[in-house]
Write a structure and sequence with these properties.
This protein is an all-alpha fold. The chain is built from five helices and no strands. The protein has a domain of about 70 residues.
């Protein structure tokens, strides 16, 4: 995994995340009941929320829970990502900015 994550505590880096688990910080989903969030059904919502408001450990868990293709697909479809998040995603995942739907709002 990336050198970004070497700053995370050992218990975060060694935690095993599987489909159906909800490892994210509860404050990210303050406006909804965490018990009602299905990690598969609400995948795009979770990805957008973690990318825009999550901590480093939430991003790490996101990469554990979803494949790069699933995350990339959600990023490309998103209409709610801010400019900083779009630039970060473009660089981290290697997606050209012109392929990101939300980037058209910032031209």
């Amino acid at each position: 995994m990336s050198v970004f994550f070497k700053f995370l505590p050992e218990e975060v880096r060694t935690k095993k995340i599987e489909k159906g688990d909800f490892p994210f910080s509860p404050y990210l989903f303050w406006d909804t009941s965490v018990k009602k969030i299905n990690t598969e059904k609400h995948k795009n919502f979770i990805i957008e929320r973690v990318l825009t408001r999550g901590l480093l450990k939430d991003f790490y868990y996101l990469l554990q829970l979803y494949s790069t293709e699933e995350i990339t697909s959600a990023i490309k479809k998103s209409k709610v990502l801010d400019k900083k998040t779009l630039n970060f995603c473009s660089h981290f995942f290697g997606i050209p900015l012109n392929e990101l739907h939300a980037s058209s709002f910032y031209d």
